[in-house]
Design goal:
Largest sheet: 5 strands, parallel
Keywords: Repeat
Organism: Candolleomyces aberdarensis
Number of strands: 7
Pfam families: NPHP3_N
Strand order of the largest sheet: 4-5-6-3-7
Protein name: Nephrocystin 3-like N-terminal domain-containing protein
InterPro entries: NPHP3-like_N, P-loop_NTPase
Strand content: 5-15%
CATH topology of the largest domain: Rossmann fold
CATH superfamily of the largest domain: P-loop containing nucleotide triphosphate hydrolases
Number of helices: 16
Structural class: alpha/beta
């Protein structure tokens, strides 16, 4: 005989005879965000050295920039043995000298050695807008500490700080540094021998200003990007000066006036400067790089081993005037353009070279302009979606290289592309 209670659930029996059946309906409720989720919302994920956003970022070609990389990594590992130990290294040099490529390769090396703590690669025009804002710097560094296997106790303290003060991300950088980094480090001194050794920050000169007021309602002066860059340097100096902060800091930027003044003034006692000049023999590195590119092209196009002539290589290196980005762009142009390699190289050689101008970037200007001006519809490059044509690819490639900003005015005149403000607004809209 079947029971009245077969398959029944959620019921109460009161006394002998009364049965109350209850049907429960559970509606989905959004659970509170965890501390790690709150932190994750305030980072610039694309600014980390191994992010997908940086998958095409320049890296040093094998066997190039070896002396510079060795000097930086050697200082990170053994800087305490210097006669006058410093906590900060400033890697600087002109646009196109290879700073970002060097920093990317150094970050990879340090990660392989297990000594990389955190990275942040600023970028004015590449990728997401939060890569050009100071707002995301400290949370991004803190997030990487949370993810580091050797810093689990510190991670707990950082997440506890977020839980205690979820509004910390709206505070000024110094408060963020104190609550998200310095205080957690002070509370977790045990096991610090296994911690990583370095923080790498690239492209400080590309950090743009954050405006804190409603411009429509306020007459307050606009902050300049230099204001934010100096604020960043100030908090990094504070960190480096703290006895409980165990990391060396490598900062790479162009030698812009405000940054240079700050390093020469308030940060001088803590800073070792490494200027990318002829001492590091960039011409030899560029010759190695070009030979690698030419070897690939010879194999793919069945060209003789004597191609191209030695005088052609010397001309290209002379045109570069120490700017690694010039030979990198020549190599990329020949790799992706799809034409006859010899003809493409002749196009490059017909452009104005180092002999016609005292401006070291003039040959690079001419190369960029030629690449865009040879496109059927150069303005199309600016309004590209994710389905890039070759022309759109080239605009993105050129725009994302720092020296391109030097020559955008001339390209605007020749090619008719929008000005920098329009391009920036398009990037914001994306």
């Amino acid at each position: 005989m079947s029971s009245h209670f077969q398959n029944a659930s959620n019921f109460n029996i009161e006394g002998d005879t009364h049965i109350y059946a209850k049907n429960y309906h559970h509606y989905g409720e959004r659970s509170p965000k965890s501390s790690i989720e709150k932190l994750r919302e305030h980072i610039a994920a694309g600014a980390m050295h191994n992010s997908d956003e940086r998958c095409d970022a320049p890296k040093c070609h094998p066997e190039t920039r070896v002396a510079v990389q060795d000097e930086v990594v050697g200082w990170i590992c053994d800087g305490d043995s210097d006669d006058d130990p410093k906590e900060i290294m400033w890697v600087t040099g002109p646009a196109g000298s290879g700073k970002t490529a060097i920093m990317g390769s150094v970050a990879d090396t340090c990660q392989g050695k297990g000594i990389l703590g955190a990275t942040h690669f600023f970028s004015s025009f590449t990728g997401s807008a939060n890569r050009r804002s100071k707002r995301f710097l400290v949370p991004t560094l803190a997030y990487q500490f949370v993810q580091h296997k050797a810093m689990t106790l510190v991670a707990d303290r950082i997440l506890s700080a977020v839980e205690h003060n979820p509004a910390v991300f709206d505070h000024k950088l110094e408060v963020q540094l104190d609550q998200l980094i310095l205080e957690p480090l002070r509370a977790c001194q045990e096991g610090r021998g296994a911690w990583p050794k370095v923080i790498i920050i690239d492209g400080l000169d590309e950090c743009e200003a954050v405006q804190h007021h409603d411009e429509a309602q306020s007459n307050a002066p606009r902050r300049s990007k230099e204001d934010d860059q100096i604020e960043i340097l100030s908090v990094l100096k504070k960190a480096a000066s703290d006895p409980d902060f165990p990391f060396r800091i490598v900062i790479a930027s162009r030698p812009e006036h405000a940054i240079k003044r700050s390093f020469a003034d308030v940060a001088k006692p803590l800073t070792r400067e490494l200027f990318l000049d002829a001492k590091y023999n960039p011409d030899a590195d560029m010759a190695l790089f070009l030979e690698s590119k030419f070897a690939n092209i010879r194999r793919e196009s069945h060209l003789p081993s004597s191609w191209p002539r030695e005088d052609v290589r010397r001309t290209l290196i002379a045109n570069a005037s120490g700017q690694f980005i010039y030979v990198a762009t020549v190599g990329r142009f020949m790799e992706v353009s799809g034409g006859n390699p010899d003809e493409l190289l002749k196009q490059v050689l017909r452009l104005p070279g180092f002999k016609v101008s005292t401006d070291a970037l003039a040959p690079l200007d001419a190369l960029y302009t030629h690449i865009l001006n040879s496109s059927p519809d150069p303005p199309l490059s600016v309004t590209a979606d994710e389905h890039k044509t070759q022309q759109q690819y080239w605009f993105a490639y050129i725009w994302n290289r720092i020296p391109a900003k030097h020559c955008m005015q001339s390209m605007q005149r020749v090619v008719g592309i929008p000005d920098a403000a329009q391009v920036a607004s398009m990037s914001e809209a994306d």
